[in-house]
Amino acid sequence: MSKNRKSEDIYSMLADQIIDSEVDVSQMFEKDGLLKQLTKRLLEKALDTEMSNHLGYSKHQRSNSSN
Question: Rounded distance, CA 21 to CA 1, Å?
Fold first, then answer.
């Protein structure tokens, strides 16, 4: 299975879960709605990954240097 196909399956599954949860669509776009929460988590994850790659170790992991 290609990476693109796998991503599409995950997106489809998530969309189905949101629809099945009977969430009020108008609440998704409110100030602290689902869209804002998803965007926040996505950006935090991307920034954490970028910082880990830059530093060479994960957040809360001890570095190998002995300052």
Answer: 28
Structural domain harbouring 42: 24-56
- Domain total in the chain: 1
CA 33 to chain CA centroid, Å, is 15
CB atoms within 10 A of CB 9: 11
Structure tokens at 2: 């290609």
What pLDDT digit, counting tens, does each position of 27-50 carry?
888 888 888 998 999 999 999 999
The residue whose two tokens read 């693109």 is 4
For the entire predicted model, the pTM comes to 0.59
- Using alpha carbons only, what angle is made at residue 2 by residues 14 and 41, rounded to the nearest 5 degrees? 35
Question: Is 32 within the bounds of a domain?
Answer: yes
Angstrom distances, CA of residue 4 to CA of 1, 12, 42: 8, 12, 18
